[in-house]
């Protein structure tokens, strides 16, 4: 099997991580492209002493760490004030702690794997994750709209959201209901399933909402590969079903991290 064939199954999930880390599909996908270009240019530098997935993320981390103050690669142009927002957040959560949290909670790596990826000890990883979680507890709270047609999943999400200290503005099960609820009580964050009860799309519901006002969105799907191709406009934040509580917590924290409305004056 060629190196390209080994890496292909892992690329969608690397895009998920990169987008969550940068708060942008555009910036995240640019980092992934830079990573792949580096591998193609020097395949002999790809680590063969670890499995392909860990090696791929390791190459990505090398690209990320080599940039100055986490500036995006040249392929990604500026995106409004988002980078300034991120820098304001970075003054309170260090980049390394965010990486450790996302790599463990969202990508499912062990502390030992993350230690390899970011160049620290497993004990340091645990400390960094604890630091990030402590900062999340102090993060500005948001009002959350949940768009989910499966009652059990909706209840689970509502419990997680409330346990994190956020409020739930409502639970919508169709596109029209989601838009109506968003307009009636403007949320600070949207959690949206892809497929809704009346065969409508959570993506279309979000597009309708975003046409009225800006709000951070986290999509939830059982088929993440379909929304992580890098070939078209796609979600920045994505949770895979079935999800873990820690994954939802990390995704919410990261989405709010980049949201303009939650940056202190």
Automatic annotation (TrEMBL):
SUPFAM superfamilies in the record: CheY-like, Sigma3 and sigma4 domains of RNA polymerase sigma factors
UniProt xrefs under Pfam families: PhyR_sigma-like, PhyR_sigma2, Response_reg
Name of the featured protein: Putative transcriptional regulatory protein pdtaR
Native species: Edaphosphingomonas haloaromaticamans
Ranges where the Response regulatory domain occurs: 143-256
Keywords per UniProt: Phosphoprotein
Gene responsible for this protein: pdtaR
The UniProt record lists the keyword Phosphoprotein: yes
Domain of life: Bacteria
4-aspartylphosphate carried by residues: 193
């Amino acid at each position: 099997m060629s190196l390209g064939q080994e890496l292909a199954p892992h690329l969608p999930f690397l895009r998920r991580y990169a987008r969550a880390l940068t708060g942008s599909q555009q910036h995240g996908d640019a980092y992934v492209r830079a990573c792949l270009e580096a591998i193609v240019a020097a395949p002999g530098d790809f680590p063969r002493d670890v499995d392909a997935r860990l090696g791929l993320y390791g190459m990505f981390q090398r690209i990320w760490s080599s940039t100055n103050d986490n500036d995006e690669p040249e392929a990604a142009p500026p995106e409004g004030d988002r980078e300034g927002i991120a820098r304001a957040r970075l003054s309170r959560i260090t980049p390394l702690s965010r990486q450790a949290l996302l790599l463990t909670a969202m990508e499912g790596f062990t502390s030992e794997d993350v230690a390899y990826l970011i160049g620290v000890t497993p004990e340091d990883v645990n400390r960094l994750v604890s630091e990030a979680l402590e900062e999340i507890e102090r993060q500005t709270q948001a009002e959350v709209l949940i768009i989910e047609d499966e009652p059990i999943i909706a209840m689970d999400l509502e419990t997680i959201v409330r346990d994190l200290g956020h409020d739930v503005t409502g639970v919508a099960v169709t596109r029209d209901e989601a838009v109506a609820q968003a307009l009636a009580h403007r949320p600070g964050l949207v959690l949206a399933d892809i497929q809704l009860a009346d065969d409508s799309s959570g993506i279309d519901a979000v597009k309708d909402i975003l046409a009225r006002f800006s709000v951070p969105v986290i999509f939830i799907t059982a088929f993440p590969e379909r929304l992580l191709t890098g070939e078209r406009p796609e979600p920045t934040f994505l949770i895979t079903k079935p999800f873990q509580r820690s994954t939802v917590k990390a995704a919410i924290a990261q989405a709010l991290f980049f949201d303009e409305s939650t940056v202190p004056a």
